[in-house]
Design goal:
The structure is a single chain. With 158 residues, the protein is of the alpha+beta class. The protein has a single domain, classed as Trna Endonuclease, Chain: A, domain 1. Helices cover 34% and strands 17% of the residues. Strands 1-2-3-4 form a 4-stranded mixed beta sheet. The two termini are 19 Å apart.
């Protein structure tokens, strides 16, 4: 075996070197988020930013049914919870340091943070997401279990 070949990192572990590949990874995360949420019965849509869009509009927004036991007596058994997800390529999530310091934010990121805060302050759930685990954790924090176990083939490759 050639020594040079054995020292190479596997393709999935390489650093993102250019913005185009980061965008492709973000698109892949977005497609996975969309699949899981649609499978969970959510109604969602992809936002395409443009000159008429509000600054910071998240990539995906929608509503998911949530059982509400307190309202059963009034005949209401479910309500919808508004959500918004700003997808990021793996490893491109804003750090807490950047999130908490406006001087370290780009204008786009500052707008995204502001929009997410508005949704949270209005009772919805909103977050940045770079993985299935992040998606599941954020919905679980809101009391919603997404049926992702077995949704993807997790068998290791040979």
């Amino acid at each position: 075996m050639n020594a040079n070949k054995s020292s190479k990192q596997p393709r999935s572990k390489r650093q993102i070197r250019n913005p185009k590949s980061a965008k492709a990874l973000e698109k892949s995360i977005g497609a996975t988020v969309k699949q899981i949420l649609q499978y969970s019965g959510a109604v969602l849509w992809k936002n395409w930013g443009g000159p008429l869009s509000p600054p910071g509009l998240p990539d995906y927004v929608g509503v998911i049914k949530v059982p509400v036991h307190q309202l059963i007596l009034s005949g209401i058994t479910d309500v919808g919870l508004f959500f918004a997800i700003e997808t990021k390529a793996p490893g491109r999530m804003p750090t807490k340091d950047v999130l908490n310091d406006p001087t370290k934010q780009t204008k786009t990121l500052a707008n995204q943070i502001s929009f997410i805060e508005k949704i949270r302050n209005s009772g919805g759930i909103a977050f940045f997401c770079d993985s299935v685990e992040c998606l599941v954790e954020n919905f679980q924090a809101a009391g919603i279990k997404l049926p992702v176990l077995g949704f993807f083939n997790t068998k290791p490759e040979d």
